[in-house]
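Journal club prep — side note

Before the paper discussion, L.F. wants everyone to see what a predicted structure for a comparable chain looks like in token form. Sequence:
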Amino acid sequence: MKDKEQNKLLAFLKSTDERYIAAFTLIVYIILLIPTVYLGKYNFMKADDFSFGRIPHRVYVETGSYLQALKAGFDVVKESYETWQGTFSSIFLMSTFPSVANYRFYKLVPAIMIFMITASVFTLSFSLVCGVLKNKKSYALIMGSVLSMIMVERMYTVPGALYWYNAAVHYTFAQCSFFLLVSVYINILRTKSTALKVLLCILSLILSVEIGGSNYSTVLIAGTASVSLFVIMLIAKKKKALIMLPSIVTLIIAIIINVTAPGNRTREAYYAGLGPVKSVLLSFKSFFVFSFTWTDFFTIVLFLMMIPILWNIVSKTDFEFKYPYLVVLLSIGIIASGFTSSYYGMGNEGLSRTHNVIKETWQILLFFNEAYIIGFVRKRFLKDKKDLPLSIAMIVVCYALVLLQPAFVKKLGTITSYTAFEYLHYGHAGAFWNENMERLAILEDESVTDAVLKPHSVKPFYLYVSDITDDPSNWENLGMSGYYGKNSVKLSDE
């Protein structure tokens, strides 16, 4: 009996069926997500979640209507647009998350962001592999699982990408919306169904408004990539590409509304930005510096692992893979544009959460360029249409290398799910939640008008961003006091 089981295992590992490889990569990805999503159970509002959610929350408390809270979100957008920043779509989403009705909904933040990452990456993978390259769904599943795992497990900074709603919806959500928009463009050009074209056009308009009113790194990346794609499609497909035009125009209009907000001038007074030429040049420098940093062991192993898989993916297509040098240069320009707004507006390479969206774009384009160059080599120099042999054993070995390597070098914190598991296993997350519940009891006590809260004794990096101070006039204190309807809030001296 034991020999039969061993023989079955060996046969499985030797299998060259890409469906088994797809199932394996998907199952591993799902398993890795469990601690990351479960950690959300202990997630609590933080920093400017209170500042932006203050007015809608007070409206909900007074009226009991989430619809009224949503309407109040437009007031927040209007005020911020005039006094602080023009990112209108992000501000609306920041101020109207369901946690303004019940703090427990905040636990859903990492699940929502991971869903957006997974949905956008898988949609893009299926659009490219099955739609453009005419290959099997199993290969698209492999591509989606590997890319999603890389994106989630090797984030630049996890708190601002997954657990801090204000930052996550402003950056991660918006960037994933852009990935979805690219998929929509691909399918608009491919589908022959008029009804589906209309639905996709409507979706593209909605996404264009949301992206155009988001953070400036995503705005520049999306603007550069979308206009470039439109021009390329216009040259290649001529009049057929005009169906993209309403979305492109909407995106440009939304960006103009965003960047011309009166509040942006107020914000600019706090920073010393650089000129446009210097900002662009430094953006390209940052691209090369950060690309070197991001090309780590995890990425290199999976990059090499994907070579035979991508070789087989490009085998069935009639796509010519012309001009690989142009594709590489355009990719570098798109990624570099993510740094430009920070140099122009703040005089530096940007906040860590800004780097999240740039790295996500870099990860997508790294494997896109790998596939494109492999396709070019195969079409240009090789006439043999045979696929390369694959085996689950090869995939298992590569996954073992990247997932076990942090344990050997004692750097478990380099993998998102490992760190999430540590916070759960050692009780840090539970202790942090309990301290927040102690605070909440004071903040929701109507008899307390001036709340004095104990400092956190436990500060898990993923769940803790910053805190109020002993100064009631500090901006975080004012946000929290306004959110809960207190005269003041401050930290105790303990």
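L.F.'s comment for the group: Residues 107-420 form one domain. Keep this in mind when we get to the figures.
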